[in-house]
Model the fold of this input.
Amino acid sequence: MEIDLLSKLPRSRRDLAARRAARSPDAIERSRRFGFDYFDGPREYGYGGYRYDGRWVPVAHELVAHYRLLPGMRVLDVGCAKGFLVKDLMGACPGLDVWGLDISRYALDHAEPEAAGRLVRGDCASLPFAPAAFDLVIALDVIHNLDRAGVIQALREIERVGKGRAYLRVDSYRTPAEHEALLGWVLTARFHDGPEGWHRVFEEAGYRGDWTWTIVE
Done:
């Protein structure tokens, strides 16, 4: 089901003209290393400084309420980066057993102290967890960094390690103008599509969870 549980996140300021001007094969290659450049380097390579500021706290409360999460339940954040949401989910529901996974050694080495021991390095297309290990699997702005075949594999992995409840956000567009903006902005995404195309991917993968879109305007 399409549902926006991220509406309380502050809207990012995107300078599309500056990103287009700086966009180059080198910038894309450096961003896709998911190292210092992507997280804490200049804006043309990614976030321009990925620091904890509490913005995920209301999202964590929204996820806990919507999915009726309780102490002792297990949650996985795929693409957890520095563990901001892992930290805030534990704060929103003390006793919740939250784990994170990310491909970036840099992000994990600079993670929030509260998430220590709960973050695993790995690939979202091959999750190192047992079947049905989690009551909820979250994957925000991560699986579209794979090609289409990889996206389908990642969705199948989310289904495998979860219990049928998942929430993801992926790059998409609804109009030609939004498509053009997306192409000018994204650096790491290897696959994106309009909602109808994503629905076909969900169906092909057997994905049963919920979703929302990242729309660049």
Summary: Residues 148-161 form the longest helix (14 residues). The domain at 16-215 is CATH 3.40.50.150 (Rossmann fold). The radius of gyration is 16 Å. The first strand starts at residue 74 and ends at 78.
